[in-house]
Design brief:
2 domains, mainly alpha, 2 strands
């Protein structure tokens, strides 16, 4: 009976861990604003993304804020800003604020979104801080009284994907409670086991299997996201780099789980061998 209870507890613990680990990673790195900024911050240094982002910021400013009669006067400054956006003073702060504003729009309650925001899109980039950075440069160089816009929105994803964000925001934080349940199951399994080495070996082997499953699932989700199209060059580059950054970030957790599983498996086998020798 003790062996059966121990085996079932290990199995339940592994099943709960299979859900808890991805949920905790998503909550820490996507749902939480600071984690999202840390994950996506390096995207601002990607050369291709920089070029597209700078072009979008400059085009938005020149189309909406600069009178047509003065466009030629501002054109050299705009071209220079488009070529060296990341070198402008204040770019790191503007990019970070862009990510924070975008996260708040994307993970907000759709009922609280401004009318101009598409509440069905999966992610909305608000590049207004970057446009404001360009506006400041143009104003300083030309003397034009430019006022930075409050919002410059770029939608990423397809319709109805807002539901996915709502579900992720609701369920991802539950991963911590599930992780506690998994830990309790493993403790129960260890306490009930007649041969405790089997618990260590079983948990280790299970962790190795879970690492493989997580890797396959991560790759499948990445391919599915890459298969969607927003029709916007900036959005496509951001989406591609976001998927790569997410895969790399979760990959570190997968590697840690695989290493921990291998250690537990080896430890369990070592205890089996030592225990067998003592009995002999």
């Amino acid at each position: 009976m003790r062996t059966f209870v121990s085996a079932m507890a290990v199995l339940i613990g592994l099943l709960m861990a299979a859900v808890a680990v991805p949920a905790m990673w998503v909550d820490r790195n996507i749902v939480q604003e600071d984690g999202f900024v840390a994950l996506t911050g390096p995207l601002g240094t990607d050369p291709a993304f920089q070029q597209r982002l700078a072009a979008a910021a400059v085009n938005s400013l020149s189309a909406d804020r600069i009178p047509e009669a003065l466009t030629e006067l501002a054109r050299p400054v705009l071209d220079n800003a488009a070529q060296s956006l990341t070198g402008l003073p204040g770019y790191p702060e503007a990019w970070t604020e862009t990510l924070r504003k975008s996260h708040r729009l994307s993970f907000a309650d759709p009922n609280t979104l401004p009318a101009e925001v598409d509440g069905t899109s999966a992610l909305t980039l608000d590049v207004a801080p970057l446009v404001g950075l360009v506006a400041t440069q143009v104003a300083d160089a030309t003397g034009l009284p430019l006022e930075a816009p409050d919002q410059v929105l770029i939608t990423i994803g397809q319709s109805n994907q807002r539901q996915i964000i709502e579900q992720v925001s609701a369920y991802a934080p539950m991963g911590y409670a599930v992780a506690v349940g998994a830990a309790i199951a493993f403790v129960l399994a260890f306490a009930a086991a007649r041969r405790r080495w089997t618990v260590l070996a079983g948990a280790g082997a299970g962790a190795l299997v879970l690492a493989g499953v997580w890797k396959l699932a991560s790759d499948a989700v990445g391919r599915a996201v890459d298969g969607t199209s927003s029709g916007n060059a900036v959005a496509e580059i951001f989406k591609r780099e976001f998927v790569a950054a997410s895969a790399a970030g979760f990959g570190q957790w997968i590697l840690a789980a695989a290493v921990a599983g291998a250690v537990l498996l080896v430890l369990g086998l070592v205890l089996r061998i030592v225990g067998g020798r003592r009995r002999a």
